Amino acid sequence: MANIAQIFKALGDETRLKILIILASRRICAKGIAKHLAISDAAVSQHLKVLKEAGIIVGEKIGYYVHYNVQDKTFIEIIEFINKLNNDDFEINTCKLGVKIPKKCEVECKATRIKLSSLLLTIQYITHAAKCTVRGSIWTLHN
Which of 23, 29, 55, 88 is most buried (CB neighbours < 10 A)? Predict the structure, then answer.
């Protein structure tokens, strides 16, 4: 559960989301990310550090540069977590978080379910985009 919280904290920054979107479409080094986002190399380095610590991305040294890529297993974990939240029979060990959830709730908030569904669709899109590359206007799925 602590890992899930760390992932959501890492995704809570707009610049890191932009970096993630770039990495979902292609492998790229830190300098390339800095040029795409028009921010300093040092700022990119700090954002990459947070994303790596959360297990969202992984780096691979190629020559003099480290190319970054999205870590699929992390997004699968997040998708499973969000699916559990959307499930009516949601049960999770909340003792560690100090949260007490009643077994059956009298009132359901549809707005919360819609927000969770939107978040799930966004994460599924990023995961799918990480497995695809663009060649001209044709998407090619990688296994």
Answer: 23
